[in-house]
Amino acid sequence: MNTFKINYIEEFLDSAENVPIYRLLGKASYDRVEELLLPDRGKYDHLYFTAKFTGNAIRRWRVNSIDRTPSTATAPASCNIVLKAYNGPVETYLETTLSKGGKISALMKPGTLVEVDYGFIPALVRYNGASSLDSSNTDALLKGEMHKRRLAIVVRASSKAVQVIPVTSKEPGAGDKTCFEISADSLKNLVRYSTSGSQSWALCSMVDSVSTSRVLPAETFNSKGGSGRSTLYPEGLSRDERISMISCLAHFIGLSNYEELRTVAEELKDLKAKQKRNEKKVAAMEKEAAYRQAMHDVASDMAKDCKRDLKAMIQERIEFNAELAALEGANATEGVAG
Predict the structure, then answer these.
(1) What's the whole-model pTM score?
(2) CATH 2.30.30.110 domain range(s) in the chain
(3) How many CA atoms lie within 13 A of 205 on its CB side?
(4) Could you tell me whether strands 227-228 and 220-221 are parallel, antiparallel, or unpaired per DSSP bridges?
(5) Could you tell me which residue, 120 or 338, shows the higher pLDDT?
(6) Does domain 89-256 have CATH number 2.30.30.110?
(7) What angle, 0 to 180 degrees and rounded to 10, lies between the N-to-C axes of helices 239-252 and 258-337?
(8) Whether residue 138 has pLDDT greater than 80
(9) Checking CA distances to 188, which of 134, 211, 284, 299 falls within 20 to 30 Å?
(10) What is the residue-wise DSSP string for 108-172?
(11) pLDDT band at 325, cuts 50/70/90?
């Protein structure tokens, strides 16, 4: 018994007539299948769908609309999913960048801002027209789990997974120390987040590990007035925000006195720095004292040598004067005798 028919339809604009045109991308039918997981257009303002259709290079599609018709006694349930091709900047996921020689340690530093495709919570559609998603269907994302494409902050990374903190526009409850606000200055280069008019909050209590296949650069403004996605991942938090990130993560794991410990650590660092500076001063003073002692010793030795030389010179002078006096006396005697 044929229970479902799914039609994937592309919508594009006729440039000459400026009207939308529709064409069939692909279709699928199901026999004896009573329920399917399908995109839930009613849940999201922007819903994307990934699929590859024969003869079409596009893989990422925006879901424009979904029209469902329940089954009847003579016809299966049908669903027309209208898609528009994604036409934004080229998207290169982190896994691809790494496969081309990118270094995870250079790209995914703590505090780096990235986007993560968490996926969308689907609708569980029954052939009789009912739609829901109960918690028994664990093949899909469920309510309460992180979902859709969103900004995230890198905590740490390996070649296979990246630990990230998701970002939301919903302000957390008062007194929640596991969240912090990201400044407008840190977001100023990000196309989607700098112009949204909403605040951005980091949810450190939702820290999670995601595949490198889900991580991609955030779209940023470029110098030519356009936008793009740099695979160098240049955007990140400020130094103060990185400290806030660590503090919020500490509160999340129950380390509520992190700020006190950080203050103590900084004081200890200052003391060590002062000790090091004092050690340098003591070493310089010891060096100066040793130099002066050496100068004193040299001067003392020179004085001793000079004293010895002076005595010798005086004795030589005395002897010279005596010899001179004796010679003059002899000369005088010879003169009288003559």
Answers:
(1) 0.73
(2) 89-256
(3) 14
(4) antiparallel
(5) 120
(6) yes
(7) 130
(8) yes
(9) 211
(10) S-TTBEEEEE---PPEEEETTS-EE--TT-TTS--TTS--SEEEEEEEEE-SSEEEEEEEESSPP
(11) confident
